[in-house]
Amino acid sequence: MIDEKQTTKLSKFLSLVLRHQPQTIRIELDESGWVSVEKLITAMNIHGHKIDLETLQHVVETNNKKRFAFSDDMKKIRANQGHSVKVNLELEPVEPPNTLYHGTATRFIEGIFKDGLKKQNRHNVHLSKDLETASKVGVRHGKLSILEVFSGDMHKDGYQFFVSENGVWLTEEVPVKYLMKREEI
After folding, report:
1. pLDDT tens, 21-34?
2. Residues 141, 146, 150, 152: what is their CA dihedral angle, to the nearest 10 degrees?
C-alpha cells in the first residue's frame, strides 16, 4: 500500500485531471464528468503517475473531502464537484437548510459585500452546512472569515440549491442581501 504523502499527491493529481484539465493525460470526461477507470489508470501510468485499481480505490476511499466517486459498477470515476470544465453532474434541486456557511479569506470580504458570492471559474458557489467545514475551506485561502448565507430565504425567493455526493451545497450565486459576516469564531 502507498504512504500518506503519495496518496495526497495522487489525490491532487486526480483533482487536476477529473475537475480541471483532463487533457493533461489525454483523457476525455463524458457530459456528466465520468471517465472509464481503465482509461484513467492507463493514461496516468503512461504519463508517469504509477497507479493500479487497488491504489485508486485507496485514494478515493481515504480522501477526507470525499472528492471522487466510482459508478455503482466501479467501471467509471468522476469528481463530485468543483469542476472548471463543463460537466452536468445531474443533481436534482433540493431545499437547503435555513442557513449555510461559506469560508473565505478576509482579503475577499470587501469584494464579496460589493458583488455577492460568485462562482468564479467553477460551475457553482460552494457552501457548507456547518461552521467546522466552512472554516477548513476558508483557512486554506488566508486569514479566515466566515459568511452566513440565508439559504432558506434564497430558496423562498426562487434560487436553486443542489447538494453533491460528498455533502457540498451548490448554488449559482449568493447576492449580498443574503450574506452576513459572522463574528470571529
Report:
1. 999 999 999 999 99
2. 80
